[in-house]
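Sample entry (317 residues):
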Amino acid sequence: MSKYRIRPADPEGLILSSLKSRPSKVKVDMFARPTPASSVLSDFIDGLPEILAGRDYKRFLQKMRKARSANKSIIFGCGAHVIKVGLTPVLVDMMENGWISALALNGAGIIHDLEIALAGQTSEDVDSRIKDGSFGMAEETGRFIHQAVKDGAASDIGLGEAVGHLISKSDFPHKDNSLLGAAYDLNIPVTVHVALGTDFIHFHPEADGRGIGQTSLRDFFLFCALIENMDGGVYCNVGSSVILPEVFLKGVTFARNKGCRLDDLTTAVFDFNRHYRPDQNVVRRPPGTGGEGFYFVGHHELMIPLLSAALKAEKST
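Predicted structure, serialized as tokens:
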């Protein structure tokens, strides 16, 4: 029995609404389209200066190609913004072509992905809806994700696999636009790393802290297992400024403590600002004696399609 006088708030009685009637800023017809291989783009990449980011970009492409040729792990840790700006088709194309072998997401990533699969839209206007308390009250989002949590905990699988399974086996009208559904169908591991209280589904009445913790902790150890096999591989942090850089740093120290050297580990950050944790916990601290870290600044909706297209370029850089 707690000795505190104040008791935790009760989510019963919250006024929920339908996701389908909620105004959203992002719709599937706004999504990106994968770019085919182009010798013109290859010439463009070859023509970049051997100075600063131009030199780094060409070197990073070489590292990506080397990892893929050697069948090494290439893991993308993506913030939810990457899904929200319509990059799912590009990431799925990269998975299908061997440029991504595993994904790590934060808790918001599964929210946006499920909403896209279910309603073909996501990203509500927080500025207007926070004023009357209607922000985050989409009933279907919480119901389906918490069903996945329940099923995942009962089946002893992680949160990423559980949500991917739910979407893949559903009759959601837009599930072909789902990142987790595609990863599940391709048998590509997805781990989801939740910070309790950061996502609106945590205040929905169906929320089960035990199930969320169980499935997300399982995903952390799955992430550690993926990192244990990353010597010679590549880790990309795309758009997560706090949670995934912290998770990655802990995964690296776990793997090295278990005897994995990870001497040849390449890391890269793609983001539209420079942030402390991605810089320290992804670029600077983790690479081994033969590894290297890179930081590329630019908008995700430009940089990730460019990366995908550059990797497809006909000539090697």
